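User:
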Amino acid sequence: MELTKNHIEELKKSSNSNFKIFINKISNEDTKLLYLLDNIGKLPRGFDEEWIFELSKHNNSKIRLSAIKNLGKIKSEKVVNFLVTRFEIEDNSSIKREIISSIGRQRNPTNKSVLYKYLYDEDPKVICQAIRALLVFKNDEEIISKLKPLINHQNEMVRTVIYKEFFVDSRRKAAIPHDQTYNYLKNTVVHGDVKNVLNFVDDESIHLTFTSPPYYNARDYSIYPSYQAYLDFLAQVFKEVYRVTKEGRFLIVNTSPIIIPRISRQHSSKRYPIPFDIHSDLVEMGWEFIDDIVWLKPEASVKNRNAGFLQHRKPLGYKPNAITEYLMVYRKSTTRLIDWNIKQYDKQTVIDSKIKDGYETSNVWKIDPTFNKVHSAVFPLELCKKVIQYYSFQGDIVFDPFGGSGTVGRTAKSLKRLFFITEKDDNYFNYMREKVTSTSIFEEIETDFLEIHQFKQKKENDTNTTSN
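Assistant: Predicted structure:
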């Protein structure tokens, strides 16, 4: 006989004896037992739950788990005592966590002392379930005194929960609304070292930063005294970017390991894993790692490192052609979910910014590189377009601290975003400015090209802080 939801409802309305008879009848049919437990819903008054206690001891872990969930619907001391006993016997970690959750669903303050002991369990997920259960009585001073010290727990998941509940001022408001920015930043390109420029940029004013840092000593425009000095420079920049980024918004860094060629046949080349080395600095300063996107290029477009090996085929001499770069995706730390960021925009902006069909479904993006006589490492327009669409709304301001030839600005403009760019190199800054009067790289958008002192003055003159 097929078991249906209607059949279950009829059984619930019948006598307890009929229910027990049916349970005995299907006792060896795990699939039906599980279906019954998953679909039994609210238990009626006077319902004899002894069969649920028995199924909580079943040898099938899925049945035990579902039975424990159903016991959480029954508010009684007997249930709590049974669950405490089962916790000590149970060896399945998921079921142990569900036991604590079921005790919590009792919502009974007399269970506080029972839950306290699970705050010191070796499984951090059990601890978090106990915290969740106790937070129902969040204003209880005794509970607060038990939970707050967990801010020093060795597990970051536990620390994060406690930090969000007790150490974040949810009433704090940014100086301007989340969907807005300052007028002095809009559609502005500043000539100067980004570290100096950012001294004049307000906190929480940028929606998205997308950039490709200069490669360590790999090109003429990038010479540093040491690799560590290079990493320290990037850390200083991205720490300031963190400050000016709005709560919960994104930083996407495009980079890859690079090779410094050998100076002679008596020396070896050196390979530096830039994306992996800057990661720890970014996380330490507060950026939360979200994703790694791999930019896959055609093999014919990259330097051939395989020619020597092709000839000799000797072990240890293998050198693959580097056809990938990384887009490392980070989010500014926040206790708020992405939904909060989205809700800061009006309905029409959200609708207008939706991504159309054909978007990337994996983290490997196959995109041809772009070459430019002026700049040797240009963002492909397609790559830039995807990032800006996926990580910002129309009307947002997009920042590139290493502006280069201005691709981020041009793309932001075409996607109805605003842009803010800094560029230290004279040639690249002049290239962007000259393009305004020739091929109109920023056409139809009034763009300010400023030296640092002019940018400072523009900010001082800006009294209107609303956007759009």
